Amino acid sequence: MQSFVNRKYFMQTVLTLFLWLLMAGGDATGGSAKPPSPHPFHVSVTEIRHNTTDRTLEVQCKLFTDDFEAALKAFFRQKADLIDPSMHERMDTLVSRYVQSHLQLRINERSVAMQYLGFEHEREATYVYLEVTNVTGPIRNMDCAAKLLYETFTDQVNIFHVTTDKAKKSVKLDYPAQTVRLDLD
Questions:
Q1: Which of 150, 149, 147, 155 is nearest to 179 (CA)?
Q2: 132 in a domain, yes or no?
Protein backbone atom coordinates (compact mmCIF):
# COMPACT_ATOMS: atom_id res chain seq x y z
CA MET A 1 0.00 0.00 0.00
CA GLN A 2 3.03 2.29 0.46
CA SER A 3 3.57 2.62 -3.31
CA PHE A 4 -0.07 3.68 -3.65
CA VAL A 5 0.45 6.44 -1.08
CA ASN A 6 3.56 7.74 -2.87
CA ARG A 7 1.73 7.91 -6.20
CA LYS A 8 -1.30 9.48 -4.54
CA TYR A 9 0.50 12.80 -4.21
CA PHE A 10 1.53 12.69 -7.86
CA MET A 11 -2.09 11.97 -8.85
CA GLN A 12 -3.29 14.88 -6.70
CA THR A 13 -1.06 17.20 -8.68
CA VAL A 14 -2.17 15.74 -12.03
CA LEU A 15 -5.86 15.93 -11.11
CA THR A 16 -5.52 19.48 -9.81
CA LEU A 17 -3.90 20.56 -13.07
CA PHE A 18 -6.54 18.72 -15.12
CA LEU A 19 -9.37 20.28 -13.16
CA TRP A 20 -7.81 23.74 -13.42
CA LEU A 21 -7.57 23.34 -17.19
CA LEU A 22 -11.21 22.26 -17.37
CA MET A 23 -12.32 25.25 -15.33
CA ALA A 24 -10.13 27.63 -17.36
CA GLY A 25 -12.05 26.59 -20.49
CA GLY A 26 -15.20 28.06 -19.01
CA ASP A 27 -18.70 28.15 -20.48
CA ALA A 28 -18.84 29.68 -23.94
CA THR A 29 -22.33 31.04 -23.34
CA GLY A 30 -21.31 32.83 -20.16
CA GLY A 31 -24.07 31.06 -18.26
CA SER A 32 -24.66 27.79 -16.52
CA ALA A 33 -27.30 25.23 -17.36
CA LYS A 34 -26.96 23.53 -13.96
CA PRO A 35 -27.27 24.86 -10.44
CA PRO A 36 -23.97 25.65 -8.74
CA SER A 37 -22.19 22.75 -7.07
CA PRO A 38 -18.95 22.42 -5.09
CA HIS A 39 -17.24 21.62 -8.39
CA PRO A 40 -18.56 22.12 -11.92
CA PHE A 41 -17.64 18.66 -13.24
CA HIS A 42 -17.81 15.03 -12.15
CA VAL A 43 -14.64 13.06 -12.70
CA SER A 44 -12.83 10.06 -11.27
CA VAL A 45 -9.27 8.98 -11.93
CA THR A 46 -8.27 5.30 -11.81
CA GLU A 47 -4.59 4.47 -11.94
CA ILE A 48 -3.63 0.88 -12.77
CA ARG A 49 0.00 -0.15 -12.47
CA HIS A 50 1.50 -3.54 -13.27
CA ASN A 51 4.04 -4.41 -10.59
CA THR A 52 6.13 -7.10 -12.30
CA THR A 53 8.23 -7.76 -9.19
CA ASP A 54 5.20 -8.63 -7.03
CA ARG A 55 3.22 -9.95 -10.05
CA THR A 56 0.27 -7.71 -9.15
CA LEU A 57 -1.88 -4.98 -10.60
CA GLU A 58 -2.15 -2.06 -8.20
CA VAL A 59 -5.42 -0.19 -8.69
CA GLN A 60 -6.14 3.20 -7.15
CA CYS A 61 -9.41 5.06 -7.74
CA LYS A 62 -9.70 8.73 -6.81
CA LEU A 63 -13.20 10.20 -6.53
CA PHE A 64 -14.58 13.45 -5.17
CA THR A 65 -15.84 12.55 -1.71
CA ASP A 66 -19.16 14.41 -1.99
CA ASP A 67 -19.92 12.77 -5.36
CA PHE A 68 -18.94 9.34 -4.07
CA GLU A 69 -21.13 9.74 -0.97
CA ALA A 70 -24.07 10.73 -3.21
CA ALA A 71 -23.54 7.63 -5.38
CA LEU A 72 -23.27 5.33 -2.35
CA LYS A 73 -26.46 6.84 -0.89
CA ALA A 74 -28.32 6.38 -4.19
CA PHE A 75 -27.03 2.84 -4.78
CA PHE A 76 -27.51 1.46 -1.26
CA ARG A 77 -30.39 3.73 -0.20
CA GLN A 78 -28.76 4.59 3.11
CA LYS A 79 -26.66 7.35 4.63
CA ALA A 80 -23.06 7.51 3.45
CA ASP A 81 -20.32 9.38 5.30
CA LEU A 82 -16.77 8.70 4.17
CA ILE A 83 -15.23 11.30 6.49
CA ASP A 84 -16.58 10.36 9.95
CA PRO A 85 -14.05 7.96 11.54
CA SER A 86 -16.82 6.26 13.56
CA MET A 87 -18.46 5.16 10.28
CA HIS A 88 -15.28 3.98 8.55
CA GLU A 89 -15.86 0.26 9.15
CA ARG A 90 -19.45 0.41 7.87
CA MET A 91 -18.39 2.51 4.88
CA ASP A 92 -15.54 0.07 4.15
CA THR A 93 -18.12 -2.60 3.36
CA LEU A 94 -20.20 -0.29 1.16
CA VAL A 95 -17.17 1.08 -0.71
CA SER A 96 -15.89 -2.43 -1.40
CA ARG A 97 -19.26 -3.66 -2.68
CA TYR A 98 -19.83 -0.54 -4.76
CA VAL A 99 -16.44 -0.38 -6.46
CA GLN A 100 -16.28 -4.09 -7.17
CA SER A 101 -19.73 -3.97 -8.78
CA HIS A 102 -18.91 -0.84 -10.82
CA LEU A 103 -15.35 -1.59 -11.97
CA GLN A 104 -14.16 -4.76 -13.69
CA LEU A 105 -10.95 -5.59 -15.51
CA ARG A 106 -9.98 -8.14 -18.13
CA ILE A 107 -6.35 -8.85 -18.90
CA ASN A 108 -5.42 -10.62 -22.14
CA GLU A 109 -9.07 -11.66 -22.67
CA ARG A 110 -9.46 -13.07 -19.14
CA SER A 111 -11.49 -11.60 -16.29
CA VAL A 112 -9.51 -10.95 -13.13
CA ALA A 113 -10.66 -10.66 -9.54
CA MET A 114 -9.74 -7.52 -7.65
CA GLN A 115 -9.10 -7.70 -3.94
CA TYR A 116 -10.31 -4.67 -2.01
CA LEU A 117 -7.58 -3.24 0.23
CA GLY A 118 -9.33 -0.23 1.73
CA PHE A 119 -10.10 3.45 1.31
CA GLU A 120 -8.95 6.72 2.78
CA HIS A 121 -10.22 10.28 2.68
CA GLU A 122 -7.96 13.24 2.08
CA ARG A 123 -9.09 16.80 1.46
CA GLU A 124 -11.89 16.69 -1.13
CA ALA A 125 -11.02 13.21 -2.42
CA THR A 126 -11.52 9.60 -1.45
CA TYR A 127 -8.92 7.05 -2.55
CA VAL A 128 -9.95 3.43 -3.02
CA TYR A 129 -7.22 0.76 -3.23
CA LEU A 130 -7.57 -2.61 -4.95
CA GLU A 131 -5.15 -5.28 -6.10
CA VAL A 132 -5.07 -8.13 -8.59
CA THR A 133 -2.66 -10.91 -7.64
CA ASN A 134 -0.83 -13.53 -9.71
CA VAL A 135 -0.50 -11.40 -12.84
CA THR A 136 2.06 -13.32 -14.88
CA GLY A 137 3.50 -12.71 -18.28
CA PRO A 138 3.19 -9.58 -20.35
CA ILE A 139 -0.06 -7.65 -20.47
CA ARG A 140 -0.96 -7.33 -24.15
CA ASN A 141 -4.38 -5.76 -23.65
CA MET A 142 -6.71 -4.65 -20.91
CA ASP A 143 -10.45 -4.12 -20.98
CA CYS A 144 -11.84 -1.73 -18.37
CA ALA A 145 -15.55 -1.82 -17.64
CA ALA A 146 -16.59 1.06 -15.43
CA LYS A 147 -19.75 2.84 -14.45
CA LEU A 148 -18.45 4.67 -11.40
CA LEU A 149 -20.95 7.31 -10.23
CA TYR A 150 -23.15 6.80 -13.32
CA GLU A 151 -26.30 6.36 -11.24
CA THR A 152 -25.83 9.87 -9.91
CA PHE A 153 -24.24 12.02 -12.64
CA THR A 154 -24.98 11.99 -16.36
CA ASP A 155 -21.90 14.14 -17.03
CA GLN A 156 -19.53 11.73 -15.24
CA VAL A 157 -16.07 11.21 -16.76
CA ASN A 158 -13.93 8.25 -15.67
CA ILE A 159 -10.25 8.59 -16.57
CA PHE A 160 -7.88 5.59 -16.60
CA HIS A 161 -4.08 5.67 -16.50
CA VAL A 162 -2.52 2.25 -17.15
CA THR A 163 1.19 1.58 -16.73
CA THR A 164 2.96 -1.66 -17.63
CA ASP A 165 6.62 -2.43 -18.23
CA LYS A 166 6.07 -1.82 -21.97
CA ALA A 167 3.51 0.97 -22.15
CA LYS A 168 1.82 3.85 -20.42
CA LYS A 169 -1.60 4.78 -21.75
CA SER A 170 -4.49 6.96 -20.67
CA VAL A 171 -8.11 6.89 -21.75
CA LYS A 172 -11.38 8.40 -20.62
CA LEU A 173 -14.92 7.12 -20.50
CA ASP A 174 -17.70 9.68 -20.82
CA TYR A 175 -21.14 8.76 -19.54
CA PRO A 176 -22.87 6.57 -20.76
CA ALA A 177 -19.90 4.60 -22.23
CA GLN A 178 -18.93 1.74 -19.94
CA THR A 179 -16.10 -0.16 -21.60
CA VAL A 180 -12.78 0.58 -23.20
CA ARG A 181 -9.91 -1.54 -24.49
CA LEU A 182 -6.27 -0.59 -24.17
CA ASP A 183 -3.69 -2.31 -26.40
CA LEU A 184 -0.49 -2.38 -24.40
CA ASP A 185 1.97 -4.17 -26.70
A1: 147
A2: yes
In a domain, 78, yes or no: yes
In a domain, residue 33? The reply is: no
Task: Specify if 30 maps to a domain.
Answer: no
Which of these, 113, 107, 110, 114, lies nearest to 182 by C-alpha position?
A: 107
3-class SS at 47? strand
Which domain, by its residues, includes 134?
2-23+40-183
Could you report how far apart the first and last alpha carbons of the chain are, in Å?
27
pLDDT tens digits, residue range 24-41?
Answer: 344 433 433 333 356 778
Distance CA 126, CA 120 (A): 6
- The length of the chain in residues reads 185
Report the b/e string of 127-157 with b at 16+ CB within 10 A: bbbbbbeebeeebeebbbebbbbbebbeebb
Distance CA 65, CA 137 (A): 36
Q: What is the pTM of this model?
A: 0.80
Gyration radius (Cα) of the chain, Å = 17
Q: Which residues of the chain have pLDDT under 70?
A: 1-38
Among 119, 172, 134, CA closest to 56: 134
CA dihedral 71, 67, 148, 46 (to 10 degrees): -150
